[in-house]
Design brief:
By secondary structure, the protein is α/β, with parallel strands linked by helices. It folds into two domains: about 1-180, Rossmann fold; about 185-385, Dehydroquinate synthase-like, alpha domain (Up-down Bundle), CATH 1.20.1090. About 50% of the residues lie in helices and about 10% in strands. It has 14 helices and eight strands. The strands form two sheets. The chain has a six-stranded parallel sheet. A two-stranded antiparallel ribbon has the order 6-7. β2, α2 and β3 form a beta-alpha-beta unit. α1 (about 20-30) packs across α2. The longest helix has 27 residues, at about 210-235. The radius of gyration is 20 Å and the shape is globular. The protein starts with 9 loop residues before the first strand and ends with a helix.
Length: about 375
């Protein structure tokens, strides 16, 4: 994985991760006196659970599982407060984006003090200035790319979701262990593959894009679009096809958007999650085709999307390639059972409430990253088209 050259995170790819393997990494990071804390969710994952049981036989380890979707400040602070008197010098996040983001926050607050809420939003009163421990992240879904990004997403006490980003939130080591994603069920496979795809595409239609991020995003988009359907089908049949490739593709996309940030899709998705608790990957998939159509009005973005399509479908004129790529996305979205309308989400939204709910997305820095400027009218028309 040559993209490792442009990230400060060391990436280790492996088919399996044993307790002996993780014990070795803990020693390498924390030395003979290593005192690790593992943050994970409580969902059953036999391969992880067996590994943790074996690891406990080898060394003392704190295992915390107060992890839920859209990590809340209070849950993270319960974990932080439970660790303050412990000599933790290695934090390990094992799970999807919520587990890995929680691990980032625990390491940041343990090192810098205060309350996580103090670090969130434009009125933040604290800043991340140091990290006193090593950070290892191990994804168990192939979507968020959080294992290689310098950001985490957290729900403040006000209920608003905020992105917190700092280079000191970047993991020292990311372990891509294929065995941890083999058993992903169809619904989670569907949402996480579209999350990964949205990361790659939002890197392309981004005001912060550079030739470097374009190359990473194009290659990751091609890999994701090539393997997301086999990965979904393998979730139905119990085979492993596409799993390793999607894990790598999501990681590549994470490397790309860590440099640019995300854009309109993610800004809108936060409202869906805040108001109706729509899972993140589903919330990103919800408006992906609409934002795609909006951004192809930018000529440079069209060229980049045509490059993605050309790598997948062969040569053709730009208009046909861009249209074919959109059709492919729509076909996969329908096959995966992802929502196109608020009715699909079982949400009733009156047109009169659109502005009150969704104008908040315009203040989100992610919206300002979008290559095509987005205003109230555009948001209103986009959301009205989903009712």
């Amino acid at each position: 994985m040559f993209e490792q050259a442009i990230t400060s995170t060391k990436i280790i790819k492996t088919g399996q991760l044993s307790a002996a393997d993780l014990d070795k990494l803990i020693f390498y990071c924390g030395g003979e006196q290593a005192h690790p804390c593992i943050i994970t969710d409580s969902n059953p994952l036999p391969s992880r659970d067996r590994m943790l049981n074996e690891l406990r036989k080898k060394r003392q380890v704190e295992v915390l599982n107060r992890v839920f979707p859209d990590p809340k400040v209070d849950d993270i602070m319960v974990m932080v407060n439970g660790l303050k008197e412990k000599p933790v010098n290695v934090v390990i996040g094992i799970g999807g984006g919520s587990s890995m983001d929680s691990a980032k926050a625990v390491a940041a607050v343990l090192s810098n003090g205060g309350d996580l809420n103090d670090y969130l939003g434009t009125d933040a009163t604290r800043k991340i200035e140091k990290r006193d421990m090593k950070l290892i992240l191990i994804p168990t879904t192939a979507g968020t790319g959080s294992e290689v990004t310098k950001v985490g997403v957290y729900t403040s006490r006000s209920g608003r979701k905020y992105t917190l980003g700092h280079p000191l939130m970047q993991a020292d080591i990311a372990v891509l262990a294929t065995e941890y994603v083999l058993g992903l069920p169809p619904a989670i496979t569907a949402s996480t593959t579209f999350d990964a795809l949205s990361h790659a595409l939002e890197t392309l239609w981004n005001r912060n894009a550079t030739p470097l991020t374009d190359r990473v995003a194009i290659e990751s988009a091609v890999r994701i679009l090539k393997w997301m359907e086999p990965a979904y089908e393998s979730s139905l049949t119990g085979t492993g096809e596409g799993r390793s490739e999607m894990l790598e593709g999501a990681c590549m996309a994470g490397i790309g958007f860590s440099m640019t940030g995300t854009a309109a899709v993610h800004a809108l998705s936060f409202i869906l999650s805040e108001e109706w608790h729509v899972p993140h990957g589903i919330a990103c998939a919800f408006t992906l085709e609409d934002v795609y159509r909006m951004n192809i009005s930018d000529g440079n973005t069209r060229k980049k999307l045509a490059q993605v399509a050309g790598a997948l479908f062969g040569k053709g004129d730009e208009d046909r390639l861009v249209a074919t790529l959109l059709d492919r996305m729509l076909t996969l979205k329908k096959k995966f059972g992802l929502p196109f309308t608020f009715r699909d989400l079982h949400i009733e939204l009156d047109e009169s409430r659109i502005s009150a709910l969704f104008d908040k997305s315009l203040d989100d820095p992610k919206m300002k990253n979008n290559i095509v400027p987005v205003d109230k009218r555009i948001v209103f028309e986009l959301i009205r088209g989903k009712i």
